[in-house]
Amino acid sequence: MAAGMSEVSTILPKAGGPVEVVSDEGLYGVPDKMKNGFSGARQRLTAAHPLEYSEINFTKNQERLDMKMLRNTQGLHAPLKLQMERAVTSKIRRLPCLPSSMVALDTVLGTDDVIGFEDYLGDPLDQEVMGDAHSLMERKLGIH
């Protein structure tokens, strides 16, 4: 090769093993709305108000401040213990087709006595779509 010429990449297939292509399309090439639900227009919209970002991140910022204050007053072990308790209690779930109340996580977070809009507007028992238990479990385990 001459100086200054780089090696040209080929278009030949490379040995890398099988690649699985995952699509939300159904049997006839149309997205399966019964399994995947409708796509929301909310994700494509921008913030409606300048304070919306602050309100969305309020609890995360408040938890960060609480952990910093706890670390300064009681040492590093206290926030680490709380984070470990939160991680353990957030993994406790039911089957994908059954709603989880997350009582243990609410107790650890201290929100078990607080009633917010998500308690009566986002109730999983009021869902309009009930999924197939077998399909949901296969999707969760990565079998399907």
TrEMBL record:
Q: Which organism is it from?
A: Nematostella vectensis (Starlet sea anemone)
Q: Which GO terms describe its cellular component?
A: cytoplasm; nucleus
The similarity comment for this entry is: Belongs to the POMP/UMP1 family.
InterPro entries linked = Ump1
Which is one Pfam family of this protein? UMP1
This chain belongs to the protein called Proteasome maturation protein
Say which domain of life the source belongs to: Eukaryota
* Gene Ontology annotations of biological process type: proteasome assembly
